[in-house]
């Protein structure tokens, strides 16, 4: 049964096509997120958001009980800064401290420390959400301990990012009408393992499966080479510098790109392969677009305080809302200074009812941001130090990011590199497009340009060995530490460490944090019970030594992991003394047995046959071989139990089954927290879905009230009075007033249910619908009646034409259609009379929809009759002219007899039926008999024999003819017992045979082609 199920599964798997899904490439920026779509049959393109924009702001807001994501949340930053979260990317997966949490002075949310993980939590106030959302949060303990009110909400960076990613996923699925699961996310290369794990947790909560995390500089290199792969010269190295100053980080990198031709399977056909080699990179938070904005905001706040501080006795910096307005304006106006020499800032009611206006020139802006501009050159110096290259080695400089559009920054780059930077790449979307290309290249479902990349290690990684003694020791120990990876190495190369030991030990993996300038531990790997494992694998510590081999590798997310751990040692099989003696005795016995068997074989060879001696010897040897094979199988079974790979020369035992992994440093989001995040997101989604339905019902009710008033008072005022009674109008007015009052009072309450709006809408629609239906029926009725009458006349005319032109249509069919039309005509006349007796304010006697349905019914019957095809005439076969068989036979046989071939007989049977042939042959025989009688009277004595022979033949022919009448066969039997089998009912007997030896010894032969040949055996039939 299991075998059948397995075969069925393989069969179904073979014929079911693989489900292909599209991919996403996500550029996770500080200020905004760009997403590329990788779909079948399309080029990699950018996903448009709900506002048809190519980027979505990385913002989340909670306002008036509503969760707002993306562009709409960005618009609320300046109005409700305490309810909006933005610029949180650099705080995901980092430890909480005052300096880190408040590194952006214009972040207006309060941040607190997660008591379990030690990370940053964001606190929002006055969100307007009910107690159901707040009570469901798993951070409730933090809210209680910190003393926040019940209206506050707390979020981790992972939860915020997961909600934004889920929003992007839903929008992509709505636009492309398919599910999106796999994605690639671009991040700064200096992200720590904790930050990378936090990004992966966020994507998992959002429903994504991350193919890999790609550094920003590598994604940029992929997009650059994919566009220029066919444009650059082959076998030539180009050193490209990519400079990207974004909203949150400044990245500078150098990559060597190259194009090569590689032969394909097709003869004389090559393909172009690209190669990317990262030579160096630098990521810095000291220069970014957000800091430029903050510098301008600080200048504006200082200017405002200098004018109004004495009057207000407080600084504008105490107002988050005023500072948010300054930040929004500074971000917008700094780009205007790229084109204009001066820009004006004007704020109405900026702070405490005061307006503020000031102008800033380009020179002032450059002076304000001078400390930031001065940090650019040292960062570039560090880039060339890391890459071990010089400025002269650079072939091209590519600028990306919004802040690289500033003229001062372009001048700094041009002065540093002594050449003009270029903007040949899409500065806003290059990373997203490169991430999409990387996603497609990692998937087996897409065929892309072949580009191979070699990237550098993002951070130094070291491993620390903790021995068994140090594990259980409380005193400080001097641990052995070894470097695994350094930033000048390629991360695709695995690393191997060999330890000469056979006892328990621990490994601790650490990475170097540049911001703290120290090593940070992030994983501990413990190996326990190694001696017991080796003892079970027959390890002898006295006679041999073991080596432990550890293999480390960077994974697709840029985190170093232990890939494999094995212990190796020379194989020595331990055997107990008793067992060894038994084995020796068995071996001696087997040797003696072999010797005796050989001697006996020699003796018996002289006395007995060799077969018997060989059989006995083979049986004894087989018993010994069976014992050896059994022992071998038992050893193999033992080795397989303990993961022993090779036991012939060196035994290799895997240590991975006994390895335990412990996350150090910042803990990951556990399953309980993930479940809590998912539940809260579901609550948000359920609430938003209900809110959308509620708002839709409310809007429909408001629209119906205003529309109905417009119709009654203006559009249909006269018709409304004609087609309704005074009582109906009064009742409708009263209902409208009640519903309108309810909407202005209870309807504005946020707690009002959706069903209440729907019930009030139905309450106002019912009385008004009847009145407006009467108006609509009155307007459409004449046209519907005219159409039905016209259709009836056309049918009658058509029936008359059918009688003349389509005679295959019967009279009953025509009468049936006419009868149906006449009934409809009578029905119409009857209902017209009823309708004419009705008043305008009364309901119609017949509806327009029913008149139209009657018209369609009779028209369909008539069309069905018209489409009846003309029947095809019965084909009649014209009889082919029959040849005169009498004349034909006379011509063939001469005076008295003729031999003819089978082909001639087949032609006769083909042209004539069986009865015709019999009648013709009978007439022919009679004529021949008359001719013979005439010849008999005039013949001489020399022809007597011939006459007698002719008579005898005629008698035999008569007999043959009588047989023909009874058996429907034409047979002639010769003296030589030859048979002729010709069935008159069959025309397919191509090989009818006839042999006849006449008394005149005529041996002439005639074949099927009527060619005479003395050596042929052609079959003949003789007729008289």
TrEMBL record:
<dbReference type="InterPro" id="IPR013126">
    <property type="entry name" value="Hsp_70_fam"/>
</dbReference>
<keyword id="KW-0256">Endoplasmic reticulum</keyword>
<dbReference type="InterPro" id="IPR029048">
    <property type="entry name" value="HSP70_C_sf"/>
</dbReference>
<dbReference type="InterPro" id="IPR029047">
    <property type="entry name" value="HSP70_peptide-bd_sf"/>
</dbReference>
<feature type="compositionally biased region" description="Basic and acidic residues">
    <location>
        <begin position="595"/>
        <end position="604"/>
    </location>
</feature>
<feature type="compositionally biased region" description="Acidic residues">
    <location>
        <begin position="605"/>
        <end position="620"/>
    </location>
</feature>
<keyword id="KW-0143">Chaperone</keyword>
<dbReference type="InterPro" id="IPR043129">
    <property type="entry name" value="ATPase_NBD"/>
</dbReference>
<feature type="region of interest" description="Disordered">
    <location>
        <begin position="580"/>
        <end position="620"/>
    </location>
</feature>
<feature type="signal peptide">
    <location>
        <begin position="1"/>
        <end position="21"/>
    </location>
</feature>
<feature type="compositionally biased region" description="Low complexity">
    <location>
        <begin position="937"/>
        <end position="965"/>
    </location>
</feature>
<dbReference type="GO" id="GO:0030968">
    <property type="term" value="P:endoplasmic reticulum unfolded protein response"/>
</dbReference>
<dbReference type="GO" id="GO:0005524">
    <property type="term" value="F:ATP binding"/>
</dbReference>
<keyword id="KW-0547">Nucleotide-binding</keyword>
<keyword id="KW-0732">Signal</keyword>
<feature type="region of interest" description="Disordered">
    <location>
        <begin position="931"/>
        <end position="1024"/>
    </location>
</feature>
<feature type="region of interest" description="Disordered">
    <location>
        <begin position="867"/>
        <end position="893"/>
    </location>
</feature>
<dbReference type="GO" id="GO:0034663">
    <property type="term" value="C:endoplasmic reticulum chaperone complex"/>
</dbReference>
<protein>
    <submittedName>
        <fullName>Hypoxia up-regulated protein</fullName>
    </submittedName>
</protein>
<dbReference type="GO" id="GO:0140662">
    <property type="term" value="F:ATP-dependent protein folding chaperone"/>
</dbReference>
<feature type="compositionally biased region" description="Pro residues">
    <location>
        <begin position="872"/>
        <end position="882"/>
    </location>
</feature>
<dbReference type="Pfam" id="PF00012">
    <property type="entry name" value="HSP70"/>
</dbReference>
<keyword id="KW-0067">ATP-binding</keyword>
<feature type="compositionally biased region" description="Low complexity">
    <location>
        <begin position="973"/>
        <end position="1018"/>
    </location>
</feature>
């Amino acid at each position: 049964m299991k075998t059948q199920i397995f075969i069925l599964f393989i069969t179904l798997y073979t014929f079911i096509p693989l489900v292909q899904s599209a991919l996403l490439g996500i550029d996770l920026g500080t200020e905004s997120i760009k997403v590329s779509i990788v779909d079948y049959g399309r080029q990699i393109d950018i996903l448009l958001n709900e506002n048809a924009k190519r980027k979505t702001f990385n913002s989340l807001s909670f306002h008036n009980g509503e969760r707002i994501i993306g562009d709409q949340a960005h618009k609320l930053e300046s109005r409700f800064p305490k309810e909006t979260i933005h610029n949180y990317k650099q705080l995901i997966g980092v430890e909480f401290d005052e300096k880190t949490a408040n590194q952006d002075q214009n972040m207006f949310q309060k941040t607190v420390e997660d008591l379990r993980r030690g990370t940053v939590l964001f606190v929002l106030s006055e969100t307007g959400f009910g107690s159901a959302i707040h009570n469901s949060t798993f951070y409730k303990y933090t809210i209680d301990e910190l003393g926040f009110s019940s209206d506050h909400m707390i979020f981790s960076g992972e939860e915020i990012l997961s909600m934004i990613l889920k929003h992007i996923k839903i929008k992509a699925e709505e636009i492309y009408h398919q599910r999106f699961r796999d994605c690639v996310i671009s991040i700064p290369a200096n992200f720590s393992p904790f930050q990378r794990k936090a990004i992966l947790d966020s994507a998992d909560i959002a429903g994504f499966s991350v193919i890999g995390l790609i550094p920003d500089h590598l994604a940029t290199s992929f997009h650059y080479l994919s566009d220029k792969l066919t444009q650059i010269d082959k076998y030539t190295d180009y050193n490209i510098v990519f400079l990207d100053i974004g909203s949150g980080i400044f990245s500078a990198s150098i990559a060597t790109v190259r194009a090569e031709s590689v032969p394909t399977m097709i003869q004389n056909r090559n393909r172009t392969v690209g190669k990317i080699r990262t030579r160096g990179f630098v990521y810095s938070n000291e220069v970014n677009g957000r800091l430029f904005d903050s510098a301008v905001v600080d200048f504006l706040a200082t200017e405002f305080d200098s004018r109004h501080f004495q009057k207000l006795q407080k600084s504008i910096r105490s107002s988050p809302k005023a500072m948010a307005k300054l930040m929004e304006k500074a971000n917008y106006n700094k780009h205007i200074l790229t084109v204009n020499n001066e820009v004006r800032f004007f704020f109405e009611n900026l702070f405490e009812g005061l307006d503020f206006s000031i102008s800033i020139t380009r020179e002032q802006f450059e002076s304000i941001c001078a400390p930031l501009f001065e940090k650019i050159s040292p960062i570039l110096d560090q880039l060339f130090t890391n890459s071990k290259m010089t400025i002269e080695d650079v072939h091209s400089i590519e600028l990306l990011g919004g802040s690289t559009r500033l003229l001062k920054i372009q001048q700094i780059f041009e002065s540093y590199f002594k050449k003009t930077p270029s903007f040949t790449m899409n500065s806003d979307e290059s990373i997203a497009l490169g991430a999409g290309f990387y996603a497609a290249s990692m998937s087996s479902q897409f065929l892309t340009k072949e580009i191979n990349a070699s990237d550098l290690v993002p951070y130094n990684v070291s491993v620390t060995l903790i021995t068994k003694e140090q594990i259980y020791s409380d005193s400080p120990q001097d641990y052995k530490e070894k470097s695994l990876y350094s930033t000048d190495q390629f991360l695709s190369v695995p690393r191997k460490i060999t330890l000469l030991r056979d006892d328990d030990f621990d490994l601790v993996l650490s990475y170097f944090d540049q911001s703290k300038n120290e090593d940070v531990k992030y994983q501990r790997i413990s190996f326990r019970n190694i001696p017991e494992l080796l003892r079970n694998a027959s390890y002898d510590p006295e006679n041999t030594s073991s080596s432990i081999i550890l293999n480390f590798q960077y994974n697709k997310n840029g985190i170093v992991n232990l890939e494999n751990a094995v212990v190796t040692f020379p194989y020595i099989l331990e055997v107990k003394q008793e067992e060894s003696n038994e084995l020796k005795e068995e071996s001696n016995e087997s040797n003696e047995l072999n010797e005796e068997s050989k001697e006996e074989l020699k003796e018996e060879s002289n006395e007995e046959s060799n077969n018997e001696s060989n059989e006995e010897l083979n049986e004894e040897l087989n018993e010994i071989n069976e014992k050896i094979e059994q022992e071998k199988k038992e050893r193999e079974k033992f080795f397989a139990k303990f993961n022993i790979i090779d036991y012939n020369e060196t035994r290799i035992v895997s240590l991975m089954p006994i390895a335990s992994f412990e996350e150090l440093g910042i803990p990951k989001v556990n399953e309980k927290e993930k479940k809590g995040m998912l539940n809260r997101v579901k609550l948000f989604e359920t609430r938003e879905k209900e809110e959308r339905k509620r708002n839709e019902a409310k809007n429909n009710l408001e629209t119906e009230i205003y529309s109905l008033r417009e119709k009654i008072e203006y559009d249909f005022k006269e018709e409304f009075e004609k087609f309704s009674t005074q009582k109906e109008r009064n009742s409708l007015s009263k209902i409208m007033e009640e519903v309108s009052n309810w909407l202005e009072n209870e309807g504005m309450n946020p707690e009002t249910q959706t069903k209440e709006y729907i019930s009030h809408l139905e309450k106002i629609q019912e009385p008004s619908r009847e009145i407006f239906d009467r108006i609509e029926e009155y307007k459409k009725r004449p046209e519907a009646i005219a159409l039905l009458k016209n259709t009836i006349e056309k049918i009658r005319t058509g029936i008359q034409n059918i009688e003349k032109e389509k005679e295959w249509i019967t009279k009953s069919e025509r009468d049936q259609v006419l009868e149906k039309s006449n009934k409809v005509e009578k029905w119409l006349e009857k209902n017209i009379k009823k309708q004419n007796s009705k008043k305008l304010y009364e309901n119609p006697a017949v509806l327009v929809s029913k008149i139209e349905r009657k018209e369609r019914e009779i028209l369909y019957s008539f069309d069905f009759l018209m489409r009846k095809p003309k029947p095809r005439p019965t084909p009649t076969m014209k009889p082919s002219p029959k040849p005169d068989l009498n004349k034909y036979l006379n011509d063939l046989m001469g005076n008295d007899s003729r031999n003819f071939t089978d082909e001639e007989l087949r032609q006769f049977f083909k042209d004539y039926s069986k009865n015709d042939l019999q009648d013709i042959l009978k007439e022919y025989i009679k004529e021949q008999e008359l001719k013979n009688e005439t010849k008999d009277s005039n013949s001489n004595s020399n022809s007597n024999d011939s006459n007698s022979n002719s008579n005898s033949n005629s008698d035999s022919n008569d007999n043959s003819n009588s047989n023909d009448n009874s058996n429907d066969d034409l047979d002639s039997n010769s003296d030589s017992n030859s048979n002729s089998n010709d069935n008159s009912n069959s025309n397919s007997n191509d090989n009818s045979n006839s042999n006849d030896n006449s008394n005149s010894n005529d041996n002439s032969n005639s074949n099927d082609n009527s060619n005479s040949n003395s050596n042929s055996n052609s079959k003949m039939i003789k007729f008289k």
